[in-house]
Amino acid sequence: MATATISAQGLVKRYGEVEALRGLDLQVPQGTVLALLGPNGAGKTTAVRILTTLLRPDGGSATVAGADVLHAPEEVRRRIGLSGQSAAVDENLTGAENLEMIGRLYGFRRRRAAERARELLAGFDLADAADRPAKTYSGGMHRRLDLACALVAEPPVVVLDEPTTGLDPRSRLQMWEVIHGLVRAGTTLLLTTQYLEEADRLADDIVVIDHGRAIARGTADELKSQVGGERVELVLADAADRPAARAALAAVAAGDEVHDGGTERSLSVAVREGARSLRVVLDRLEADGVRVLDVGLRRPTLDDVFLTLTGRTADDEATPGRAGQDGAGQDGTGQDGTGRDGTGRDGGGRHRRAEERDAVPARPDVTSEVPR
Fold first, then answer.
1. In this structure, is residue 364 part of a structural domain?
2. Do 22 and 66 fall within a single domain?
3. Is the dihedral of CA 64, 359, 81, 346 positive or negative?
4. Which neighbouring-strand residues pair with 72?
5. Order of all β-strands in the sheet with 259-260
6. Does 322 map to a domain?
7. 119 part of a folded domain
8. pLDDT tens, 68-103?
9. Kind plus residue range of the DSSP H or E element containing 360
């Protein structure tokens, strides 16, 4: 197994009586993508804030690129790039000026900072908007610029905290292409997301988090195998044909009962021999004169996995007041762990004060004199 570039053992974080993390373990081998998958309030962002030295854990340990997050936070910051849920760019500066400023903070000379800015603007399809103020950018452009800022110093590790939340489908696809490019370049990525399709498409391994604990881990296919194989699903033209359709499905069932779908005309069943089972069902329905509006063979999705493991969909938030809620997600008061209420406004509250107490200042290590 490849050496773990990101490693965490037994991470614990509490906010008063609320446990945001309850002994979380993570291993991310070099050059791979690990997705932390879970609903709002599961603990994903709290884990990210600890691994990026923005928050002190109450228990456990972690290293990133060989540096300890508690004992060598400055080294960790030199080796990572972080793109959070909200784009951290200066709205009044142009795209090029934002990138050049980050380069200068990292100690780049003026010419090198400008060169790196041009490289990133071209790579992120922002060259045409290089001289426009960031406040004129679309949501997708903001996210791409924010990720470009995280890559100025070419870090070996990049942490993406829900990078496509709030983006339209086209912008999301563009971000996925950017992330694929980072992977091809050998970057190690830690990705948090509540989008199951995103984890399925981008991650080498997935850790499902619920109430501050890892409840499952593995590849997308390994997780899907936990909820069984393929299913034959059909929608009848006439609900009166349910008995005949149920009998046809029961004939190919893989030891599972026939399930009712979302309407009185829909049915489904798990099968072992997908394509063959589908043909058997269709032949029997035709012989019995049963008309169908829709029929198909469906593989399990990560939605099915999450529903099986947690009893709810990934769109649902963690139950307010229960342990394991994300200190940087919904805490039952409408505020997140940074005091924001989901709109970027400061909602105040004890979680924000707790984070201010525990937070470690994070910024690029700058020299006392920026080179000219």
1. no
2. yes
3. positive
4. none
5. 259-260, 266-270, 231-236, 292-298
6. no
7. no
8. 999 999 999 999 999 987 778 999 999 999 999 999
9. none
Tell me which of 299, 314, 341 is where a domain ends. Answer: 299
Neighbours of 275 (CB within 10 A): 10
The answer to whether the beta carbons of residues 247 and 236 sit under 8 Å apart is: no
Q: Which of 272, 245, 276 is nearest to 261 (CA)?
A: 245
Residue 208 DSSP label: E
The answer to whether residues 194 and 253 belong to one domain is no
Do 26 and 65 belong together in one domain? yes
The tokens 């709290």 sit on which residue?
46
- Specify whether 163 is located in the same domain as 28: yes
Say if residue 351's pLDDT is above 60. Answer: no
Q: What is the distance, to the nearest Å, from the Cα of residue 176 to the centroid of all Cα atoms in its chain?
A: 12
What pLDDT digit, counting tens, does each position of 116-133 carry? 999 999 999 999 999 999
Helix (H, G, I), strand (E, B) or coil at 47: helix
Q: Which one-letter amino acid corresponds to residue 227?
A: V
pLDDT tens digits, 164-212: 888 888 888 988 998 999 999 999 999 998 888 899 999 999 999 999 9
Cα–Cα dist 232/29, whole Å: 37
Stated pTM of the model: 0.72
Q: What is the CATH number of the domain that holds 11?
A: 3.40.50.300
d(CA 370, CA 372): 6
Instruction: Please report where in the chains the tokens 């919904």 appear, as a residue.
Output: 330
Give 353's DSSP letter. Answer: H
Pairing of strands 59-64, 80-83: unpaired
The burial of 307, by beta-carbon neighbours within 10 Å (0-12 exposed, 13-18 middle, 19 or more buried), is given as: middle
Q: Which amino acid is at 345?
A: R
Chain centroid to Cα 335, Å, comes to 20
Question: What pLDDT, on a 0 to 100 scale, did the predictor assign at position 151?
Answer: 94
Decide if 37 contacts 209 (C-beta within 8 A): yes
Distance in angstroms (rounded) separating the CA atoms of residues 278 and 126: 48
Q: Where are the beta strands (DSSP E) in 219-351?
A: 231-236, 259-260, 266-270, 292-298
The count of other CB atoms within 10 Å of the CB of residue 176 is 16
Domain extent, residue 219, equals 4-79+155-224+353-358
Integer Cα distance of 1 and 18 in angstroms = 36
Q: Compute the distance between CA of residue 94 and CA of residue 134 in angstroms, rounded to an integer.
A: 5
Domain match, 238 and 283 both: yes
